[in-house]
From TrEMBL:
Name under which the protein is recorded: Two-component system response regulator, OmpR family
Species per Swiss-Prot/TrEMBL record: Dehalogenimonas formicexedens
Modified residues (4-aspartylphosphate): 53
Keywords: DNA-binding, Phosphoprotein, Transcription, Transcription regulation, Two-component regulatory system
Domain Response regulatory: 2-117
Length: 226
């Protein structure tokens, strides 16, 4: 397994490395101290797990997460000293899978990371879907509406895939949350899911009839494909 750690503090890197080596003694770890260097590695190399500190010296950790999911979809863990509820919600909205406040409990970190990797093993190849003039290429996070390309984040990609699977019918909040966040669900109050839907809607071409309709108290449905 290959892990990219984007962390500026050496003591935290040591703690992460020693923790990861307990379940994965042969783990290969690449450490970056800035967001810029982290993105450079992601562009040219393949990793199985990302661990990202939100407090980066050269950019917002949130901006880094958003950029990561334009390149690929991999298990992503966010860490921060004195992590707040707002940090967790925003990280989940942007595509992170797990959040830990530093210092973290090693046993909890290991258990949740192992579960996270198991969840991703079933999502790695969703393939492509086509409905009318809408095409979704899940492997590269791209949708095509009337020939116009739309770049998707990891969560938007999974959201679109789930809605297309159930086109024209209501897809429940819980069903979508499981598709995106696995059995752990989203933020617990649909706020992360609503934020993801809102951002995806904004990416649709203005002249397109494609719409995501909110069924209040129930879920969402995708309509308007010709």
């Amino acid at each position: 397994m290959r892990v990219l750690i984007v962390e500026n503090f050496q003591d935290d890197v040591i703690a992460l490395v020693s923790t990861l080596k307990i379940p994965w003694p042969e783990v290969e770890i690449t450490r970056c101290t800035s967001g810029t260097s982290g993105l450079a590695f992601i562009e040219k190399e393949q990793f199985d797990l990302f661990v990202i500190d939100l407090d980066l010296p050269d950019m917002s950790g949130f901006d880094f997460i958003e950029s990561v999911f334009l390149y690929c979809s991999k298990p992503t863990i966010v860490i921060r000293k004195n992590l707040t509820g707002a940090d967790i919600v925003r990280s989940l909205q942007l595509g992170a899978d797990e959040c830990f406040s530093k210092p973290f409990d090693p046993l909890s970190f290991i258990a949740k990371t192992q579960a996270l990797i198991r969840r991703y093993s079933g999502k790695s190849q969703l393939g492509s879907m086509v409905i009318g003039k809408l095409r979704l290429d899940t492997d590269i996070h791209r949708a095509y509406v009337d020939g116009q390309e739309i770049a998707l984040t990891r969560n938007e990609n999974l959201l679109m895939h789930r809605l297309m699977q159930n086109y024209g019918q209501v897809t429940s909040y819980s069903s979508i949350e499981r598709a995106i966040w696995g059995n752990f669900g989203g933020s617990g109050n649909n706020s992360a899911l609503r934020g993801c839907v809102k951002r995806l809607k904004k990416k649709f071409p203005q002249d397109s009839s494609l719409r995501i309709v909110t069924e209040h108290g129930t879920g969402f449905k995708l309509v308007g494909i010709h």
